[in-house]
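Feature request, filed as a ticket because there's no other form

It would be nice if the structure record came with a short human-readable summary line next to the tokens. Right now we just get the raw output. Example of a typical job, pasted below so the devs can see what we mean:
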Amino acid sequence: MENRSSKINAGALVRRERRLPYKLLLPTFLLVLGVVLFPLFANFWISFKPVLLADLRSPELSIREKVLSASETKSDTVRLEYRYRNPSKKYNLTEVKFDDRVPDGASVQEVDPRCKVKVNLVPRVISCELGALEPKARGRVAVTLAFYEPVLARQLLLKTKPEASFQTKNVLTSFEFTLSNYFKLFSSAEFWNVLKITIYYTVFGTAGALLMGLFAAQIMRSVFPGRAIVRGFLLFPYVAPVIAVAFSWVVLFDPFSGVINHLLIEMGEIKQPINFFGQRTVEVELFGHKFNLPLALSMVILFEIWRYFPLSFLFILARMQSIPKDVYEAAEMDGASPLQQFWFLSLPNIVGILAILFLLRFIWTFNKFDDIFLLTGGNAGTRTLTVNVYEQAFAISNLGAGAAVASVVFVILLSVSGIFIYFLPKDHG
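Raw output as currently delivered:
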């Protein structure tokens, strides 16, 4: 019996220890649920609803009191009107009613059939039930009161304000769904053009930042005087405020007062200023072939590469410095050139970190909004999906369409991430 009881106690202890990690991680799970998953679920929820930005504001019942007449003689009557209105252009108001306090020193003479006086309450209350109100509906409710001091009637009446209550439909919390946002989205040629621009911007921006970071890391592996200072300057684009560096680029490339245009004109390279961030395309001749280069988009990509290559540079340099120096010394003694050392020694050891950086930079660049908005505002062929989300949701006030675009962005990034992680290469280190 003792052995059996000890086994039971041991089993309970084991089960408790197994549950302990879940209990410890529960706050983290709840935090992730609240911060990440709930907004994501809300976005998908809104994307299936024809909701506008104005629909976020709940309809309200407008009630205004107006004193029509007040006699100067005692025991005379005062006519009070409650003018109500449903300001909503889309939603009905149901179970509409309001209450107002009867001022002291007044007696109710006549009351609207929709109203009644609650004499059992102190103070007395006029309660009116209006039923249902259609959009833009308005009306009046009249009440006649008698005052012992008519001179003070207006002051006494305006001291109190009616309290209204009603029920209304909320498009966000209702269980009515539609696919109209997605149908309009995928049937629009504009969406596919924006998607193409986004992929173009993301692929070239990501690849350029990785290649430039790899080049900088390869150079900074060597020891030379002032290396620490140069490394600090290389980090400047990434740590500088985005609004400051974006403004600097806009000023430098300004077609009227920009330094770049002035230098190009002085060097005889161009005859007239170029609007780098405002011109959609420019004709370029390369190896005898002429083609239209997307100028504004290319400039935005260059800014993306310049600003975010330091992150790639730091990761790649850290991985390179972890490779034993003996390997490079042995390769050099065997007559391997610097290119051969990089291709056969460095690259196999950093391919894993390159893959991770490509995935991270792809996701971040695909979601990039602030850089493009500050440089071009999404004009001149630089409108990406994230800019389109902003324009649909806030510029056009079509919140449902904006949420649909955001959902498409999430699905694309989730699919790309899943495929990439499945085939993720690993380095030799």
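Something like this underneath would help us a lot:
The mean pLDDT is 85.
Strands lie at 62-70, 77-85, 93-101, 106-111, 115-118, 125-133, 138-147, 163-168, 281-286, 289-294.
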